[in-house]
Amino acid sequence: MVFAVHLRLNPMGLNRTARGIVFVPSLLLGGAFLATAAWIDGPAAANRPLALALGGVLVAAGLLALVLPEGPKANPPPATGEGPSSRRPGAGA
Length: 93
Known about the structure:
By secondary structure, the chain is mainly α. It contains three helices and no strands.
């Protein structure tokens, strides 16, 4: 809920590069935790629920990064070169 509110207030929003930066590592790390939970043996088997939980959360976070909507498109700069930044305040025309 808080993240969704932040996206509405943040004019940049999410972009495609940020999605990839979140998606790929979280999916790979989550897969590693899930694989560890599948092959864990011996005294470390008590950690299987923890590995399953961490792997599930990481995979879910990566997939959530893909389904979140992109931010608004940036407006292109003015074509004439007379944008608001090129004028000095108080200068007469």
